[in-house]
Design brief:
It contains five helices and six strands; from the N terminus they run βαβαβαβαββα. By secondary structure, the chain is α/β, with parallel strands linked by helices.
Length: 208
């Protein structure tokens, strides 16, 4: 029995201060992000969606809304899909910004393989995999759509592809409003299909 679980990254966020917003509340989609969510809703309009679930964060819920509405489904919430925890949440962390130049930040930068500044990659992978299988069960024989965030989706994909979890963030293939679709036969993963219904975005610029 084939089941497809689509992992959808949320749309662009309104973030004029360009901070790392992480799990902070009240970060909603920009106008562009709303258009991206509508584009994805149109792209999956003909799919046999049985279940739509999202991270509890506002940007994920807003991205899920037009898709769930088009399929007359409620939006479930799964904390396993939430953004990764990060000690620099609420600060500017781009190259040249002050947060990473402060001595108090340096102990959090010593181990990029874990990483030392936030939630361990292996923990992200395990909680995301749990969310995937919960969605798979809910949509057995049909399709489910899970709205999450760039780092958790990319970590999950690397885990499923048996690749090392630490990586260069600039190389993530997980554009805004992109779909990383997991195809299952029963509990067995058959393959992963990546698509960008709203177009390609630069992981260095668009943030989480």
């Amino acid at each position: 029995m084939t089941t497809v679980v689509h992992m959808l990254r949320h749309g662009e966020v309104h973030n004029p201060e360009k901070i790392l917003y992480g799990r902070l509340p009240n970060f909603h989609l920009s106008e562009r992000g709303q258009r991206q969510a509508l584009t994805v809703a149109e792209a999956v309009a003909g799919h046999d969606l049985a279940y739509v679930v999202a991270s509890p964060l506002q940007r994920a819920q807003e991205t899920a809304a037009p898709i769930a509405g088009a399929h007359r489904l409620d939006i479930a919430t799964d904390n396993g899909l939430i953004e990764a925890a990060n000690v620099f949440e609420g600060q500017r962390v781009a190259v040249g910004d002050g947060a990473l130049r402060q001595p108090r930040a340096w102990p959090h930068l010593v181990n990029p393989f874990k990483p030392s500044w936030g939630e361990p990659y292996v923990e992200i992978a395990h909680r995301m995999l749990g969310a995937v299988h919960r969605a798979r069960v809910k949509a057995e024989g049909r399709e489910a759509l899970c709205v999450s965030h760039q780092l958790p989706i990319w970590t999950l994909r690397r885990f499923l592809e048996a690749k090392r979890l630490w990586h260069d963030p600039r190389q993530r293939q997980c554009s805004l409003a992109s779909l990383t679709s997991l195809v299952f036969d029963g509990e067995e993963l058959l393959g992963i299909v990546y698509s960008e219904p709203a177009g390609t975005t630069d992981p260095k610029v668009t943030g989480a």
